[in-house]
């Protein structure tokens, strides 16, 4: 099957990209914090530092984290309170630099999985930023950071009118409109916006809000938890086949 431009983004590709790009993006990965769909990172960007200076500082922080790997692993394993955190983590918490990130294929999945209801998520790492979120976004496609409520293309940019009818542009507009963004509301309610499109957009907004409210579950299990679940499934299958074999006999 030929890979389509919008469907080429997957969580697996986002994971691969973040491990390759995090140094130049200014995020140090915290060891032993990875689950199926999340990871803790430390934001190393400070002031006007960028380019090689930022990469150098991020690399130093990553090396520092690895030196305290055992302490960090124990801290997260025991789920201790911030006051018990190793110094390298405690400093990041105090400076509000520690981020718990959810890893997605596209930022629009944030609403698909109803992640607003999960406490503690403070960053979205995605392959493509195609939505409007109230928390910061780190996009792999451009290795760019977006502030909370910042979209990949500004809704007031004339270029947005060009991309509005694409899947990418529509996804951005719908999320911003459903979340009550003033620019999105003005865009949809403007005289230049077709009446039929406005009616359809209002229907889609209602459906979006309902879907966001219901959502779908997304797992955040570490390696040990995944093995435990796998063992339970394997044991259940063994018991099922044993009973089936007895019935045949």
List the helices and strands and how they pair.
Blueprint: H1 11-25, E1 27-29, E2 38-43, H2 51-67, H3 69-77, H4 87-94, E3 98-106, H5 109-112, E4 123-128, E5 137-139, E6 144-146, H6 158-163, H7 167-178, H8 182-189, H9 195-214, H10 223-248
Parallel strand pairs: 3-4, 4-5
Antiparallel strand pairs: 1-2, 2-3, 5-6
Helix pairs in contact: 1-2, 7-8, 7-9
Largest sheet: 6 strands, mixed
Portion in helices:
40-55%
Q: Assess the beta-strand content as a share of residues.
A: 5-15%
Mean pLDDT: 88
Q: Span between N and C termini?
A: 45 Å
Helices and strands: which structural class? alpha/beta
SSE string, helices as H and strands as E: HEEHHHEHEEEHHHHH
Overall shape: globular
Instruction: Count the beta strands.
Output: 6
Low-confidence stretches: none
Instruction: Kindly provide the radius of gyration, computed on alpha-carbon positions and rounded to a whole number of angstroms.
Output: 22 Å
Our count of helices gives 10
Strand sequence of the main sheet, in spatial order?
1-2-3-4-5-6
